[in-house]
Amino acid sequence: MNVCIEELSKNFGAAQVLRNIDLHIPPGEFVSLLGPSGCGKTTLLRILAGFEHPTAGQVLFDGKPVSGAGRGVPPEKRDISMVFQSFALWPHLTVREHLEFPLRHHRFVAGEIRANAARHIGETLDIVGLSRFADRYPSQLSGGQRQRVALARAMVTRPALMLMDEPLSALDAGLRIAMREEIQRIHRICGCTVLYVTHDQSEALAMSDRVLIMNSGSIEQNGSSADIYYRPATSFVARFVSGSNLLEGKWQGETFCFGTRPRCRWIVPNVQDSIKREGLCPLRPDQLVFTGDTRELPGVIRNVQFQGKENHYAVGTALGVLRVHIPGARRCEVGRQVFVGLRDKAENPQAYVADSAAMVM
Ligand code: ATP
Could you identify the atom of ligand 1 that is nearest to the CA of residue 45? Predict the structure, then answer.
């Protein structure tokens, strides 16, 4: 399904929850809506589902208006399905009955699927690995199996648009990773358009063709996972998506100058002009290293967390506390003096000019 959102706004009383959203999702695309709690993700999803109506603007499915100011096509008349955070299973229905129900009542089910419902349900249960559990009730299933039922119920009708609202957030960390693959596979098989709401950065970046970053009811950036991660358009996106450090200073082309006497300069390519204009330099924790070069930025380790293949440090510097991720098992202890530099620069020293000396801590 081709989804078009035009100048969409939503108010609850005096509070404006969505501000002038413009968005086009072509058929078959997997788009994630990523943002902090309360930024309006679920509200946008509920408008697409038909549970809420916009205050202004409109939504078009395949060119036909389905939601406009204060009105809209009801959810049961839209060719969509939804997966909720809470799974929303019916306790009195077996797994198989959960799939029979939408096939009987969803009005957009293709004739061929309806005519061969039993076979189609069998195939769908196979896809999500639930064939052995077809006659069980939700209370007889684990959390991961319940979520698979919810996914199977959503895909069994082969909807044109699948809306997913934090479908993995009730699962433990290991299961969440396994279910990501499951969802990607389901998307490949169904070929439907997917809008996936999450506040988990890694989930959104891992699965999506495109990621929309929402903040306070607006879309701050709309791009591929790599774009969002490597070329954030705003300081909010840099901090929210990759946990970037935001250093204050002045830009001269690709050279970022920070500190006072003496100056420190780092060449940082690929920073968007919109962030440069804020006088900020976003640096992901993995772009920084501890270097033996005492002309670099001095600091003292304030905290360290072991993360298996790397250690995560908090380093107190004249520019504030910087987050630095260092690969490898070797660990520097709290209280140790270090010099923080750019990973790129440490690896290609010829390409850089630096004239920093001991900065006043
Ligand atoms: P979360 O990640 O915590 O689910 P979200 O980004 O999905 O958050 P929404 O649920 O869309 O956020 O809510 C956005 C804002 O709208 C919040 O401040 C919320 O309190 C408010 N809100 C949502 N629904 C209603 C409602 N029916 N009436 C009044 N305010 C509402």
Answer: 11
Averaged confidence pLDDT in the chain: 89
Query: What is the pTM (predicted TM-score) of this model?
Result: 0.86
CA distance 175 to 9: 36
Is residue 256 within 8 A of residue 244, CB to CB? The reply is no
Which of these ranges, 103-112, 126-135, 184-193, 346-355, has the smallest mean pLDDT? 346-355
Please tell me the distance between residue 18's alpha carbon and the centre of ligand 1 in angstroms.
10
Q: Return the closest-CA partner of residue 93 out of 19, 152, 13, 159.
A: 152
Residue 355 has pLDDT above 60, yes or no: no
CATH number for the domain running over 243-359? 2.40.50.140
Rounded distance from Cα 39 to ligand 1 centre (Å): 7
- Which option is the CATH number for 3-228: 3.40.50.12160, 3.40.50.1000, 3.40.50.300, 3.30.1130.10? 3.40.50.300
Residues of the chain with CATH 2.40.50.140: 243-359
Would you say 211 and 31 are in contact if contact means Cβ atoms under 8 Å apart? yes
| From 9, 10, 17, mutation site for ligand 1 pocket: most ligand atoms within 8 A of C-beta | 17
